[in-house]
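Lab meeting minutes (informal)
Scribe: AK
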Amino acid sequence: MLSCGNNSLMFFILSKVLLFLIVPFFWIVILLIWLWFSKNQRTRKRLRITVILLAVVFTNPFIYNSFVKAWQPSPTVLPVNTHYSAGIVLGGLAGYDKNKKGYFGDDADRFIATANLYHQGFINKIIVSGGTGKLNQDEPAEAFFLTEQFIANGIKESDIIIESRSRNTHENGVFTKQIIDSLHLQPPFILITSAMHMKRSVSVFTKNGVGCIPFPCAYKVVPQTIDIGNLLVPSTKVLNDWTYFLKEIVGYYVYKLTGKA
């Protein structure tokens, strides 16, 4: 019988494999290879049509923006003079290079939002939840780099709580719950993560009994006037952006089906 730790490791590995399978570019490449080797004219025609449709849909900024805006929650405005025992910021906004030097990534707005909430007096402490998402686990925990940066930003070291074991959102919730219980911190907590990642995160933390108020940031798409160019001009960047978005959609429903959210 597999232990809880082995089950968690298997889920972690399978999630990495699943991420590879949901990449739209991967689908297009597979279909093109199939088209190249296929001798059946009817099959070749269907494959050509499918490849064209996939390319049009997954490189169209307007289609991508419409789906993402519907998925992202609205910004949270906290009432003036409200105070919470802690804000929980999830990893996924920083990483390390080959020399183990830390750097911020595209979702660095999570750091900015957390620091602002602390300096504005909304949260008393910051729980930094993030280990490493790499399969080989050969780099320092992300929480260590973020802690250094929070201290450099004028946040007291005594007000920072580190959770450095988590490899994914499920473990963010599990290990943070253990810390909260051990320190007897009082809910609700401010949960800080990217807008696209918030739906899954709230579900996970709620499942683990952590009462939280979502504070989405690092929005991938914001309301703006419609640009006719978005309707017609394909974008290879959007093709890559769909991968992250599909990861969130599939991840949310897989977590639901497996009882993790």
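Next up, CB showed the second protein from the same session:
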Amino acid sequence: MRDAWHFNRNDLIFLGDKNLVKKNWNGKNILMLGAARQGQALVRFMATHGAHVTLSDSKPFDQLTDARQDLSDLPIRWEVGGHPLSLLDGNEIVFVTGGVDLRIPFLKEARRRNLPILNDTEVFLQEVSAPLIGITGSSGKTTTTTLVGRIAEKAAADNQTVYVGGNIGNPLLTLVDQILPTDLVILELSSFQLELVTHSPAIAAVLNITPNHLDRHETMDAYIAAKANILRNQKTGDWAVLNRNDQNSWDLRRLVQGNLISFGWDAPTDEAQHAVFMQDDTVMLRMKGQLVPVLTRAQVALRGDHNLYNVMAACAIAAAAGFSADAMRAGVEHFSGVPHRLQFVREYHGARWYNDSIATAPERTLAALHSFSEPLIVLLGGRDKKLPWVELAKEIHKRARAAVLFGEARDLIETALLQEQPENATVQIEKAESLPEAIQKAAALCRSGDVVLLSPGGTSYDAFKDFEERGKVYSEWVMRLN
């Protein structure tokens, strides 16, 4: 039976902004900063749409072999080893990848010359004709986006394709010309991507906003402002999805111009609110006056309360899109997690080894610690993002048997652990220069019944290109243990 709030599939047209006028890129002189995957996607799109493209990367040619090979079929001009100001001469638009800091002098000069500065996300939002769901947050967005994608697949019509991308997977700009108005697009959006957008998805979710990327944004106000861009340009018929239990997310309800559905642990006192909440270990949905049980906690395969929030968020987003409770249940059940997020690797020496490389902030590591009751050996490190380690250090002293610290941030983390060390401290602290060395130290420490958890709390950029490569290396080295 169709749920009372469930829209006809044709009503999904309200999710997309059909009034967007696609830009004519033909003949435009454009400059792309950064040859990473987002930059390559933008270059390919622009070149195939008739733009004259210059691609500039700070790395030398010998470090760009893969990018040069991937783009060798395109008539583009390369500039490597830096970004000379002369590149701005004659170009009409400057594009940047997410890794390019908007504060660099080159971009300050571009702004002084009144040159537009855009990214591939903004171009995709301008170009795509399909309905859009956008999801952002400091933590949980990859899991939630994946869950929404699974739910959408269960709800999709036979002739409808569901595309999941943005901050995960390959940039969807490479596929935008084949995405039909009847399809559905679900985007994970980072603060870096949202900094420059002037279009908002008509279903926009902000899962939470906690200190993150302060090495880039400098202040929490600037970080929150970037996240809030996902809502700023919504229209009266659109939907916002906010977290009642996260103050920074909930405060954004002042920006809501259309409909609001929220999620949180307890039911809101206002029974007229559209909401998802927990009741008697069951995820409940209240929508258009109807109360519907979606699934029980026992039906959720993901570990930890933080993942129940992700499930509730996914159900709230799905409800805004008009998907049925049956589709929500089918999409969530049997899903054990995304790669590199509390991913079980193997059992060795009686200990269970987990890969949580996606935890690139101390708060994410905190959530991971709360997912286990077993004795813990935690691998922490990478590159610091100028975030506080105090609360994590306190929790490690409560929950862990040992901490193995590696990478650039190892001394910083050691200092936090020593400063927060209680009188009866029992946590053994070991340090390693590299992740493989840290794995060897953890293997020597572990015993039957332990959980060995890579949950770094820092980025991977001191030694790896991204958290995925770090997680892959971790899993490979763990599998080699004998």
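CB comment: DSSP finds 16 helices and 20 strands in the chain.
No objections, moving on.
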